[in-house]
Amino acid sequence: MQKQIFIEEISYVDGAPKKEVGLRIKHTGNSVIRTIFEHLNYEVVKIDCVAFAGLTKKDLPRGRYRHLTDQEINGLKML
Questions:
Q1: What pTM value is reported for the model?
Q2: Could you tell me if 45 and 32 are in contact, meaning their C-beta atoms sit under 8 angstroms apart?
C-alpha cells in the first residue's frame, strides 16, 4: 500500500536553472522528496530545506547559526 503525499505548491526557483524546483509539503524527511521524484523517473542530486515550521534560513550564511526569538520558540512548542 502506498502512502499519499500532497504537494501544496511546486514552482521553479527564482534565479536558478530550470532543473531546480521548489516544493511546499507538510511531510518532513528527504526520503519523501526522493520518493516523489524517483516515482517520476527524476534523479535527485541535492535537497535543501529552506523553511521549517515558519523558520527560515534567509540571510543566514552557510555554517552560521542564530538564536531563536521567544516567539519562534513558542511556535515550535505548539507543534
A1: 0.59
A2: no
